[in-house]
Amino acid sequence: MLIAFGLALAGWAGYDWMQSTQTVESIEEEAEASEPAPEPEPEPEPEPVQEEEESEPDPTKSFEFEKGDEIASLEIPSIDSRFEVFWGTDDATLDQGVGMYVSDEWTETPNVQKHTVLSGHRDTVFTEMGDVEEGDVMQVEFDGWIYEYEIDDIWITDADDRTVIVEKDEPVLTVTTCYPFDYIGAAPDRYIMQGELVDLYEK
């Protein structure tokens, strides 16, 4: 009888211990469930993208060229021609190729974006100039920039006409050569092509 009572007492004690253990585990689980979930760390804000500033040629930049220096190039895609451009329009320079006429009063280098004037002999560099038409493009490469002009006027004038080389407030390219193209000797007229700047980009 005593043995049976002891076994019953031991069984009850074991049952009571198991119940208390389960109760503790249940309380711990409820506590864990009631704890708020940790807030996710905020994602770092993306760094603002810095837009590259559009660069422009420096209109105040001056150049110390000597007469006859190669300084630029002139390309006319419609006649598949590219010409070297030299500083000056004296006879010796024009014997080299196309010359850039720059004066303190009326004309400038392309970076100033005013009136740029190029001249060349009809019987050496500008032999196909008569095939160029209004709407064609002339591209001048100068000091790391490409200046693209669209021809909007072509005309013939007297060789002594001084109204061609004048000051302009807008970027304009004027190309001149002697005319008639097949004339032998000093031609009496000048063939003029003029275009406004329509595009500008770094080479």
Automatic annotation (TrEMBL):
Keyword Secreted among UniProt keywords: no
Basic and acidic residues composition bias: residue spans: 58-69
Alphabetical UniProt keywords: Hydrolase
Biased composition (Acidic residues): 26-57
Region (Disordered): 21-69
Active site residues per record: H121, C178
Signal peptide: none
Domain of life of the native organism: Bacteria
GO molecular function: hydrolase activity
Descriptive protein name: Class D sortase
